[in-house]
Amino acid sequence: MKTTRLFLCLAAFLGVTFAANPADADELVHFESAPVKLSPFRISKAREQGEILSQPQGTPLRGYLSRPGGDGPFPAVVVLHGCEGMRLSIKELWPKRLVSWGYVVLVVDSFTTRNISDPCQSHLPDRVFDAYGALNFLSKQSFVDIRRVALMGFSTGGTATLEGTKIEGNEQLMDRKFTAAVAYYPLCAATQGDATVPILILTGDRDNWSPAERCRKRLAKMSDDSLPIELNIYKGTYHDFDAPEFKVGKRVLGHIEKYNPDAAGKSIRSVRTFLQTYLTN
């Protein structure tokens, strides 16, 4: 009984509640990244030269789909992992939390089908197209309200989230659009400019892998016409501060990764409020 109470208290602190009749979680699904569209110039040149262009194809991917009980349609969240891949908090804890809040969740596995074994030190694919491939997949599910889908990324997945929701980025080539975006400790860039959707960025002031100062510089260069970007910086906090598997901090490639329960709890509450604000009818 004491163990059960302790588990429920921890779950409540971390923002996880449990639905009475949740649907099966973590269903393995298969889809493709959004294909890279040919530019009008490339198509025009091909016609001039009598060249026959092949239809662009996406990359085969797999993901993990979780959903609340009931028929929906529900708002949804597409989740992009960091360079460490499908860690426990990405594959299990965040989906359970988001499902308990009423969202369908699709966690995109960008590495397995590409046979990427050492992604933190190697070239990563353009994962913006993975995110939009996941959005295309969700658009075919009757239990998803495709008008209310957020993109949420962690570390390099957070960086891809910002790249996929910037003015004049690849987002403009996509048929379907996200409604909002959440980026945990991303690598910001001032050149990303304005946002195409409301964005919430959460990072730590001691994170030297994804420095908060770079995010401040991006916000300073936004125009008055940009959709809002909210930046939450947590004091005394390092990379991966929301992930309980890093309770004992460790150093990776010269960078500290460490769980911070206080910052984690605050960020989770901010995410819940943000999603309620922008994914509610």
TrEMBL record:
Does Signal appear among the keywords? yes
Q: List each copy of the Dienelactone hydrolase domain by range.
A: 61-279
Q: What is the recorded name of this protein?
A: Hydrolase
Keywords (alphabetical) are:
Hydrolase, Signal
Signal peptide start-end: 1-25
Please give the SUPFAM superfamilies that the UniProt record associates with this protein.
alpha/beta-Hydrolases
Alphabetical list of InterPro entries matching this protein: AB_hydrolase_fold (IPR029058), Dienelactn_hydro (IPR002925), FrsA_esterase (IPR050261)
One GO molecular-function entry: hydrolase activity
